Amino acid sequence: MPHATELIAIIALGLVLAFVCGMLAQRLRLPPLVGYLLAGVLVGPYTPGFVGNSQLAGQLAEIGVILLMFGVGLHFSIKDLMAVRTIALPGAIVQIVAATAMGGALALAWGWGLGAGLVFGLALSVASTVVLLRALEERQLLDSDKGRIAVGWLIVEDLAMVLALVLLPALAPSLGGDGAGAAHHAGDGNIWLTLGLTLAKVGVFTAVMLVGGRRFVPWLLDQAARTGSRELFTLAVLALALGIAFGSAELFGVSFALGAFFAGMVLAESDLSHQAAADSLPLQDAFAVLFFVSVGMLFDPGILIREPLSVLAVLGVILIGKSLAAVAIVLAFKHPLGTALTIAASLAQIGEFSFILVSLGLSLKLLPEEGRDLILGGAILSITLNPLFFMLTDWVGRKVTERPHLAARFERKGAEALSVATGVEAHRGHAIIVGYGRVGSTIAKALKAWELPYIVLDRDRRRVVDLRKDGTEAVFGDATAPGILQAADIAEARLIVVATPDAHTARRIVELARELHPGIDTLVRTHNDGERRHFEEQGVGLVLMAERELAFGMTLYALRSLGLKEGEARIFVDSTRVESRSAPVEAEIEQGAPELRPHKEGEV
Predict the structure, then answer these.
(1) Is the pLDDT of residue 364 over 50?
(2) DSSP states of 395-426 as a string?
(3) Between the CA of residue 553 and those of 62, 101, 371, 527, 557, what are the distances in Å?
(4) CA 311 to CA 374: how far, in whole Å?
(5) 3-class DSSP state of 498
(6) How far is residue 541's CA from residue 494's CA, in Å, rounded to a whole number?
(7) Distance between CA atoms of 205 and 265, rounded to whole angstroms?
């Protein structure tokens, strides 16, 4: 195949096969990611037929990791990270040490050297970013205490792996590996100098992002939002995520994922974070699928036949050894058993950093090729079994809860609940006005006059800024995008007013609003009878068609002008409105009719 088409081929075939295999897995009641992994095996070098370019697939998968970590950072503020430091920092370090020791013991039992044992153990100790985040998102745990601890734990693991990747070349000669190139990677072979430089780089990067990034990143995105161009705003989001990730890796030596996470975290304190997360979500999903495909491409199924016991031993360390260590650590810090089980299940798999460590270990001649196959086999199986492991831990949690005497042993005995700032004041019983044009602004003024609570949701950044200056609560974003209605506290709202003129957008907003809050009252404007009938069939509280309401108002004025009494004219118009399948009379807004010109003396 010509080189110029390899990129197109891996994207097209990877996504098509992932879709087919994902649908098949879903039909078999298996997690879709099992199908994505199978798609990778089908286009990998160990199965007949087309062989994809695994290097290209790996780079595409890295984009998915970057966008995913950027999205996590958007929902994970600096205060959140500080809130979990007391458990995430020591917990991750102890778990890495325990898993590395278990992996190293296996390597020594197989007759490998100390260096191979160290690389092998480290590769088994670090969880996959993509798998962990997908698991937490599917179970709606990402914004919970459990999710924040797991993400904080993951960040500490990433930092530890960054140090390991820098130090391994310097340690290679003393560990029995090839020292060629070690000096180039690590400060002329001086391990302490290497460690100092690495820590200094990470420290400088953190300071730059927390001090300068907190000002520059939201400012830049705000400038893009003020243009009113959706394309420019989306481009700004992607440029920030990918640009900061790449720059952090090139300038400071940290991982792409860690750089993207910090970029998202400094942006999380801006009100633009919800729309930024929504705009990057489709690309996150697409490239995350390519990540699983790329993992499958590296896997040699023959290892399951050649070394079944060794694969089971590796899987035992990942699923059982790491999990028991995580449970013991979390319980030791006096957190509930439910939190301990969730953390254990979240970390019971390995992924992208493991593959990077394997590649480095092979290049330094520290790890035998058999180690690569065993780690890939452990990764494939642990990722496949991870959803089932979550189900198992949920079952264990329920069984413990059913036994009060046993549950009492695992009660919280001193750990304080995580103090996490939401960043916004909670609302209840308010109205959400989507679109602040002529219609939306009129309704807002009426609500404001009666001192009724409401939040405006608008796609125009400048309009949102002006509203906030006037003391009106407003959210910037597209109401059809994920997370935007939640930012306006849709679950606690009493009414949503869809004042946007686009029929397709109005339909989608109503659907999303009812998914998030089935009992919410709805008020919608539309411009044709077909849409009006659709909304009325869906049970929308009130549907107003602009042209028809204009006709009714003009009819009322015409009847009054030609001599009918106001009461008679109103009864006729309201009857006509009911006959046209409009809302009931009592639901109409009395102020909806145009103001009448005062009659002259002698007029009825």
Answers:
(1) yes
(2) HHHHHHHT-HHHHGGGS-SSPPPP----SS--
(3) 59, 80, 79, 16, 6
(4) 6
(5) strand
(6) 12
(7) 14
Q: Considering only CA atoms, which of 155, 139, 170, 2 is closest in space to residue 93?
A: 155
Tens of pLDDT along 527-555?
777 787 888 888 888 888 877 788 888 88
| pLDDT above 80: residue 8 | yes
* Apex 195 CA angle, 189 and 197, nearest 5: 95
375/398 Cα distance (integer angstroms): 33
The closest of 345, 380, 393 to 134, measured between CA atoms, is 345
Q: What is the pLDDT of residue 444?
A: 92
Q: What is the DSSP letter of 596?
A: P
Q: What is the pLDDT of residue 580?
A: 67
Which value, in Å, is the radius of gyration of the alpha carbons in the chain?
30
- Cβ atoms of residues 279 and 237 within 8 Å: yes
| CB contact at 8 A, 287 and 63 | yes
pLDDT band (50, 70, 90) for residue 11: confident
Tens of pLDDT, residues 424-470: 455 789 999 999 988 899 899 989 989 999 999 998 888 888 898 89
**Distant-in-sequence, close-in-space partners of 195: CB < 8 Å, separation ≥ 6:** 163, 167
What's the DSSP call for residue 481?
S
- DSSP at 521: E
pLDDT tens digits, 266-320 = 887 777 887 888 888 788 778 878 878 887 887 888 888 888 999 999 999 999 9
The residues, ordered by sequence, that sit 6+ positions from 345 with a Cβ below 8 Å of its Cβ are 135, 323, 386, 389, 390, 392, 393
CA distance 436 to 465: 12
- Please report the pLDDT score of residue 49 as a whole number: 76
Percent of the chain with pLDDT over 90: 19
Count the residues in the chain: 604
pLDDT digits (tens, 9 = 90+) for 500-525: 888 888 898 999 999 889 989 999 98
Distance CA 58, CA 298 (A): 10
355: left (phi over 0), alpha (psi -120 to 50) or beta: alpha
Instruction: Determine contact, residues 159/261, Cβ cutoff 8 Å.
Output: no
Distances (CA, A) of 517 to 416, 428, 444, 459, 495: 32, 13, 22, 22, 10
- Quote the tokens at residue 305: 């036949």
Residue 482 makes CB contacts below 8 A (sequence gap 6+) with 277, 278, 281
Helix, strand, coil % (nearest 5) of the chain? Answer: 70, 5, 25
DSSP of 418-433, one letter per residue?
P----SS----S-EEE
pTM: 0.65
Contacts of 533 (CB under 8 A, 6+ apart): 581
**Single-letter residue type at 533:** R
